[in-house]
C-alpha cells in the first residue's frame, strides 16, 4: 500500500469510527509515528480531519459544531475514566448540577453508585439515563431545548435556579486554549453554564484531549475558575502559556 492509499484508508477509518490514534495506525501499517504525523498533516491540509494530541478526528467542513449523537461516539474510554475520577470528587448525599455534554454524562453514570445524592440536570442525555435508576433523586431543569447541546438552556433555566444552591456542578467544555480560556460555540449554552457555576459551591470541569488548543466565541471562564479540572490530556501542564493555569486543581486520568 503506497502513501496515497494509506491516507485514503486513514480518512475512511476516521469517517467510520469518528476518531483514531497515531498508535493504532502505526501498528496497523508497521510504520513510525512520524510517518503517521505526515499523513495526518496532509489530511488536515485537505480538510478531512481535525488533529488532537495523539490522533485525529473526523472533520466535516460544512459543520461548525457536531451534534450530540456524534460526540457520544468519540473518546468513550477516555470519558469513562474522566467520569470515574470526577465521581470520586463528589461526596455522598450531595446536591449536584449535571450540565450538558457527553463527558458529563459519563460522570452522571458513575454517580449512580453514590448514596443519597440529589441530582439536577438540564441535559436530556443525563435525564434519559438517570431516570431508569431506582431510588435516585432526580430533578429535571426546564429551558429552551437546543438540539446540538442536547439540553435545555437560557433564561428559563436560570430563573429555575434562582433560589437554589448546589454543592457541586459538573461542566463540560468544547474548547480550552493555551491561556486556559474555556469556551463554547453557543451563547445560550455559555450563559447557562455560567449561571450554574454561580449557584455552585464547588465547580468541576471535565473534558477530553480533543478540546485542547481550540478557542470559540463564547467564554465561560478560565481553568483557574474551577475547583477541580479532570482530563485525559497528559501534557496539559506543559500546554498552558500562563503558569497560573497549571495549579494543583488539575487531575489527569
Automatic annotation (TrEMBL):
Transmembrane segments: none annotated. PROSITE patterns: HTH_DEOR_2. Gene3D superfamilies: 3.40.50.1360, Winged helix-like DNA-binding domain superfamily/Winged helix DNA-binding domain (1.10.10.10). It comes from the Bacteria. The keyword Transcription applies. Keywords: DNA-binding, Transcription, Transcription regulation. The keyword Secreted does not apply. InterPro entries: Carb_Metab_HTH_regulators, DeoR-like_C, DeoR_HTH, NagB/RpiA_transferase-like, WH-like_DNA-bd_sf, WH_DNA-bd_sf. Residues 3-58 form the HTH deoR-type domain. GO terms for molecular function: DNA binding. This is DeoR/GlpR family DNA-binding transcription regulator. It comes from Enterococcus viikkiensis.
Amino acid at each position: 500500500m503506497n502513501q496515497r492509499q494509506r491516507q485514503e484508508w486513514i480518512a475512511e477509518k476516521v469517517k467510520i469510527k469518528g476518531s483514531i490514534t497515531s498508535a493504532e495506525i502505526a501498528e496497523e501499517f508497521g510504520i513510525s509515528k512520524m510517518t503517521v504525523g505526515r499523513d495526518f498533516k496532509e489530511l488536515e491540509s485537505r480538510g478531512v480531519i481535525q488533529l488532537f494530541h495523539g490522533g485525529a478526528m473526523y472533520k466535516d467542513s460544512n459543520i461548525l459544531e457536531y451534534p450530540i449523537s456524534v460526540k457520544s461516539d468519540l473518546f468513550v474510554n477516555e470519558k469513562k475514566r474522566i467520569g470515574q475520577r470526577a465521581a470520586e470528587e463528589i461526596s455522598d448525599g450531595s446536591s449536584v448540577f449535571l450540565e450538558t455534554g457527553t463527558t458529563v454524562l459519563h460522570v452522571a453514570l458513575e454517580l449512580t453508585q453514590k448514596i443519597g445524592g440529589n441530582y439536577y440536570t438540564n441535559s436530556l442525555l443525563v435525564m434519559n439515563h438517570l431516570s431508569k435508576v431506582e431510588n435516585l433523586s432526580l430533578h429535571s431543569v426546564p429551558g429552551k431545548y437546543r438540539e446540538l447541546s442536547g439540553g435545555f438552556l437560557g433564561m428559563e433555566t436560570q430563573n429555575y435556579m434562582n433560589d437554589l444552591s448546589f454543592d457541586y456542578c459538573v461542566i463540560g467544555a468544547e474548547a480550552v486554549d493555551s491561556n486556559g480560556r474555556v469556551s463554547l460555540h453557543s451563547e445560550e449554552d455559555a450563559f447557562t453554564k455560567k449561571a450554574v457555576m454561580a449557584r455552585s459551591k464547588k465547580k468541576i470541569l471535565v473534558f477530553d484531549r480533543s478540546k485542547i488548543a481550540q478557542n470559540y466565541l463564547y467564554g465561560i471562564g478560565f481553568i483557574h475558575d474551577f475547583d477541580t479540572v479532570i482530563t485525559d490530556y497528559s501534557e496539559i501542564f506543559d500546554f498552558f502559556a500562563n503558569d497560573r493555569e497549571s495549579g494543583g486543581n488539575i487531575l489527569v486520568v
